[in-house]
Amino acid sequence: MKALFPLSGAIARRGLLKLAAAAAGALLFTGAAQAQAPAKTKVAAIYTVPVEQQWVSRIHKALTAARDRGEIDYTFSENVTNADYERVMRQYAEQGNKLVVGEAFAVEAAARKVAKDYPQTAFLMGSSGKPQQPNFSVFDNYIQEPAYLTGMIAAGMSKTGKIGLVGGYPIPEVNRLMQAFIEGAKEVNPQAEFTVTFIGSWFDPPKAKEAAFAMIDKGADVLYAERFGVSDAAKERGKLAIGNVIDTQPQYPETVVASALWSMEPTIDEALKQVKAGTFKADDYGQYSLMKHQGSSLAPLGTFAAKIPADLVAKVEARQKAILDGSFSVKVVDKEPKSSAR
């Protein structure tokens, strides 16, 4: 009987069948792998200032780290005006973002209104207020513990006993850090004098610089740089500065002695954990900024490690240990600090 297909044709046919089977298997494997890969969580952030600004840069850094780990799809808007904040919040909620992060300090009413309209979206907002059920959680930079330690260092490094503090606005988030800094300084030098100025802006380095110059003219030789621009003034006049939120010593190696650092990673990681598990609820995430959660820390002394007196370093290390083991608590004082300089 004559073969239906020539031998060579049959071999070719079997080869094609094998290729088709292999291709189908590859597609099934790819599909299975894609099915097994966890879906990325869509996250959006809204910032009223540039992402380079100290406070906001910490949130951006934590979210960028989560993105780089492959956990989230991250998008953000910066320099959003207060008048436009509500619109941008709604836009991100409509786009299906599971978590929206931002600062609601100047737009509390609008932000909370949006959260009510999108109960299935998780909102994590920098806020002086309380959580709002069911989905509006709050956080803040509770870094008063390392701020206290930097105050100790400032007083120990000051030759005149006169210390200047330049801040943005006298709101609780700034006040508590300045108050802790002052108390830390008083522990080392009870006679220290303080000049306090608020520039009325979150990002105006020239104005902060001028305020710092005025303090130096009055005898201050160590400056608390709550805002950008203060360290520039200290550098130009040969004075010392204490950093806030981020470590700027690399940019001012002969000026910035120490800094109280804020890390938003513990806060963001906990929020993402709750969102992914479907258990996110209105809560206060402020505790994740404390030193025990690694949300804040005293920056390495770096270029000043050998310049700070050994006995002062020992005092600071002992106080830090007491904070971490719970035997010493830095008080949270939100009222506006006042100048004590005579």
Automatic annotation (TrEMBL):
<dbReference type="InterPro" id="IPR052910">
    <property type="entry name" value="ABC-Purine-Binding"/>
</dbReference>
<protein>
    <submittedName>
        <fullName>Purine-binding protein</fullName>
    </submittedName>
</protein>
<dbReference type="InterPro" id="IPR006311">
    <property type="entry name" value="TAT_signal"/>
</dbReference>
<keyword id="KW-0732">Signal</keyword>
<dbReference type="Pfam" id="PF02608">
    <property type="entry name" value="Bmp"/>
</dbReference>
<feature type="signal peptide">
    <location>
        <begin position="1"/>
        <end position="35"/>
    </location>
</feature>
<dbReference type="InterPro" id="IPR003760">
    <property type="entry name" value="PnrA-like"/>
</dbReference>
<dbReference type="InterPro" id="IPR028082">
    <property type="entry name" value="Peripla_BP_I"/>
</dbReference>
<dbReference type="GO" id="GO:0005886">
    <property type="term" value="C:plasma membrane"/>
</dbReference>
<feature type="domain" description="ABC transporter substrate-binding protein PnrA-like">
    <location>
        <begin position="55"/>
        <end position="281"/>
    </location>
</feature>
